[in-house]
Specification:
The chain has 356 residues and is of the alpha/beta class. It contains 14 helices and seven strands.
Length: 356
């Protein structure tokens, strides 16, 4: 087995299990450390012990690499695969199978832990047809939010990534079948843009015009009074650039960051505005968010809203969190046809760009 693939797959399964970041990063770092070595040199270094002295290689990662270059699946990876064979969620499997894409993910351009390429590889491994790259906007400095200049640079990377994916797929077309329909994938240019205190979106309109997907979220002043928060969200939802209202209450129900109560706002008015402006309400799949709460999902259904089941992944393995979101959607009787991430790419892009 390719050693780099083994190390990255281990990191994927650990991310999926919400393992500590330092543990995941040990395998990502080791993969990066040996990725530049020729296969023959890697074998030699593993067998004569020089690999142990390389920066970024620890006892566990050395063991994994050694077992991989000897031709087998490393024991540690095999154990993770066995654990990963069980679904993350108990329900929602049918809806999960209908999900074609994910409109909320982060890379190491902002506060994600992995390069864009690894996020794309994981999305394709999971069978996604599209993934929106939605790194943060500049106001969220703690998350290394993207200025207009950095976002413009990222758009070039997105275009190049899609070109590379297409060229690689063409090179691997099964000529006997004569088509490549099962490998189509597109990385969507996007952003998770901050909803500022006055309701404006935290990026220039010119840059927002260039994007496929805009997720608008509140990240600051979450304890503002209901009137202030409602007006703030209504203005953001009415902006023609907004496609998805992200994790609308901002609550945290578990996890390393502790708990945080939901923001106070007039949900009926906000969801009515979402329905009016064709903005999808996000069902955020992160276990620590579970946002919106069940009662607000019911209000959004009654208001006639669309929904977007998103992972909000900050690492490749977290892209599989869509299972949690699908389970919550099914438990709340969300109609599958109103979940935009079940739609084919062409329909999704037509919807996303219709108001601009």
């Amino acid at each position: 087995m390719d050693a780099v693939d083994a190390l990255n797959e281990i990191a994927f399964w650990l991310e999926r299990e919400l393992a500590p970041t330092f543990k995941v990063q040990a395998f990502r770092n080791a993969a990066e450390a040996v990725s530049g070595l020729a296969p023959e040199e890697l074998v030699e270094r593993a067998r004569d012990g020089r690999l142990k002295r390389m920066k970024g290689i620890g006892a566990r990662t050395f063991e994994v690499i050694s077992e991989a270059v000897d031709g087998g699946v490393p024991d540690y990876l095999d154990g993770l695969r066995q654990r990963g064979s069980h679904p993350l969620a108990e329900g929602g499997a049918a809806l999960h199978a209908e999900l074609r894409g994910d409109l909320h993910s982060h890379s190491n351009w902002s506060d994600g832990g992995s390069p864009i390429g690894l996020m794309v590889e994981a999305a394709r491994l999971l069978g996604r047809q599209y993934l929106a790259l939605t790194d943060h906007s500049p106001n969220l400095k703690i998350a290394n939010g993207l200025s207009a200049e950095r976002l413009a640079q990222q758009l070039d990377v997105v275009a190049q990534t899609n070109s590379d994916v297409a060229q690689n797929d063409i090179a691997h077309v099964d000529t006997a079948q004569g088509n490549n329909g099962d490998k189509d994938f597109r990385l969507l240019a996007g952003i998770e843009v901050d909803i500022l205190e006055n309701g404006d979106l935290d990026q220039t309109p010119e840059m927002l015009d260039r994007l496929d997907i805009v997720v608008a979220s509140v990240h600051s002043k979450l304890r503002s009074d209901a009137r202030t928060m409602t007006q703030r969200m209504l203005k953001a939802v009415s902006d023609p650039h907004t496609n998805v209202l992200g994790h609308c209450t901002g609550r945290l129900v578990q996890g390393s960051r502790g708990q945080r109560p939901p923001s106070d706002f007039d949900a009926e008015r906000v969801f009515a505005a979402c329905a009016e402006h064709d903005v999808a309400v996000e069902i955020n799949s992160r276990p620590e968010r579970q946002d919106p709460p069940d009662d607000l999902i019911q209000l959004a259904i009654e208001a006639g809203c669309l929904f977007s089941i998103d992972s909000d992944a900050h690492a490749p393995g977290q892209l599989d969190f869509l299972q949690y979101g699908a389970e919550r959607a099914v438990l709340n009787d969300v109609p599958a046809g109103r979940v935009v991430t079940t739609w084919p790419l062409e329909r999704l892009l037509e919807w996303a760009g219709s108001g601009r």
